[in-house]
């Protein structure tokens, strides 16, 4: 089996290699693909030295799977070329997410929808992934009518430039800015660009992707905030359900959901925090409590490492699903 990682030198690309190693993802040949400025450089991975190649050269390799983490423009241009060669493309950008002809996949939720004809597969937005990992089992059991979510997002979602900005500000060094404002000791109520409706692209992703993956009838209203945190994204979620529930039943349901870990023992100050989600694949949920202001409603607090389950791990799980279904033969 031949695979390629497009965007190998990026932040998510590096985490993808960690996930491939940790999950013992099996391959015969791997090609690490980077931009023109990095072609020819070397990366050591799994005790082997890889020479970075360009995407045109990768296209000639007759790959089984190509994992894209190099931005929407790259994916829009190159993914169809790889797919035409019979390669399964799993794309981590926003390029194909809302394309009606492409599947938007969280394996634990809708991985069984994949067919051998799905040559370009979209990985959802990181904030959407962690939210829906918790919402999907609740929706299946009780039905969700409305979601109000506020996100508190790690700077790692922006990339290396944001990390540098935070480190520079922490040290009192004036440097290149990833954001319009300082991020150190701050909270910026803007993730991605603003749209004509006053919401940001990130906020609309939470709504649009929920509709595509889970249910188009769920009403979703989102506010996305960037905070000076490295470990992962946090989300405060308020749900209104179609049916009545008991909090303990919700806790038991989530505690037995694949990929979700319940941390909800307030008497012992146990609840999810991004500091402790870093480097982990689970989506953590806690502070589960009934909303006394509205019938059939509850509040949740959800945390996950946005570079792991929100991006790299989910992508590798999609690749594993393709192989599990027997769509790739050696």
What does this molecule look like?
The protein has 330 residues and is α/β, with parallel strands linked by helices. It has two domains: 2-124 and 311-324, 3-Layer(aba) Sandwich (Rossmann fold); 127-306, 2-Layer Sandwich (Dihydrodipicolinate Reductase, domain 2), CATH 3.30.360.10. The chain is built from ten helices and 14 strands. It has helices at 11-22, 55-59, 72-84, 107-110, 126-142, 160-171, 201-213, 247-255, 274-277, 308-324, and strands at 2-6, 29-33, 42-45, 48-51, 65-68, 88-91, 103-104, 120-122, 144-153, 219-226, 233-241, 260-262, 283-290, 297-304. The mean pLDDT is 97.
Structural class: alpha/beta
Q: Report how far apart the termini are.
A: 6 Å
Instruction: Give the H and E element order.
Output: EHEEEHEHEEHEHEHHEEHEHEEH
Strand order of the largest sheet: 2-1-5-6-8-7
Shape: globular
Tally of helical segments: 10
> What's the mean pLDDT score?
97
Q: Regarding quaternary structure, how should these chains be classified?
A: single chain
CATH superfamily of the largest domain: Dihydrodipicolinate Reductase, domain 2
- CATH topology of the largest domain, by name, is Dihydrodipicolinate Reductase, domain 2
Helix content: 25-40%
Report the CATH architecture of the largest domain: 2-Layer Sandwich
What does the main sheet amount to?
Answer: 6 strands, parallel
CATH C-level class of the largest domain is: Alpha Beta
Number of DSSP strands? 14
Number of domains: 2
State the low-pLDDT regions, or none.
none
* Alpha carbon gyration radius: 20 Å
Strand content is: 15-25%
